[in-house]
Design brief:
The complex is a heterodimer of chains A (about 80) and B (about 260). Chain A is mainly alpha-helical and about 80 residues long. Helices cover about 90% and strands about 0% of the residues of chain A. The longest helix of chain B has about 50 residues. The chains are: A mainly alpha (about 80), B mainly alpha (about 260).
Amino acid sequence: MPELKSLGALIGAGLVYGIGALGPGIGIGFLVGKSVESMGRQPEAAGMIRTTMFIGIAFVEALALFGFVLSFILQGQA
Amino acid sequence: MVLAFEVPPVEEMFSFKTLVPIRLGPVDASLSGAVLLLFLATFLVGLFFWAAARRPALVPKGVQNLAEAVVDFVREGIVMEVMGPEGLRWLPLLVTMFAFIFVNNVFEVIPGISFPVTSRMGHPATLAFMSLFVFNVAGVQRHGLLGYLKHLLSPPPGLRGVMGVVVSVIFIPIEVISTLLVRPLTLAVRLFANMMAGHIILTIFYVATAAFLQPKLAGVLAVAPLGLAVALTAFEILVAALQAYIFTILTAVYISLAVQAHH
């Protein structure tokens, strides 16, 4: 039974990071793409857009980082 | 002929021998290589700015020129963009933060050191605690304690009546957790994860180069991992600067969110 538990923990550790990175990956892609698009349309607002973009990236990236931390916690359970 | 090589275990890449064991109650405060590197980084940053400001010249040259470029980058690229002129009082903190994190990160690619101090969780965690402390103190300074709590616990504007109550019940706990817990946690983990991943990747490629160079195998095979290792080293310098920039700009953003007028 302990083997099964550590097997589950290790598989879970891999999955939780991989799946956890999917959504934020797509999200950051959209976010930066749209920001670059609007910087192209309005170069004089580039500074403001860049700042807002970084705030947005920070919030979206947080989700991927949760997956990263959880995968470490799960590895510790193995 | 087997094309295999041994990668050292991850724990080994990030641990140092204890040089002087020190215990402060339950806390292990021993002096090890990582702590010495931390002292070295502190000393280097201090020396850099001291040398730059020792004999300030109207027309800067040498180290003063470099220091002015750093200060100007943080001033124009971070403070003025995020906080505007009223944020200039935070400039010394942010410049120091940027320079310190950058030096600690860039140790990753300095020959003879090859270890980013920020890839051990304690260091980014301390920096993130500092950021948390600073933006809360900035908010309390601006709004007063009650005003800051009101600022933190206020419902989203524009909703009245039952809807306002319902949204507030959901919104306020999320906002408090996001401000006081998620912000420092993500600041620390972002820096730590990036530097740790960089260190592991560089280690793997240099170990592979060394393994393929052995006379038994054809030395030509080492060209590919060596080329990739050099390219990744350049990439890691970029990551070191980028992570220092992101940590600093997010601290600036959190300070400006805490002090901004409540609407």
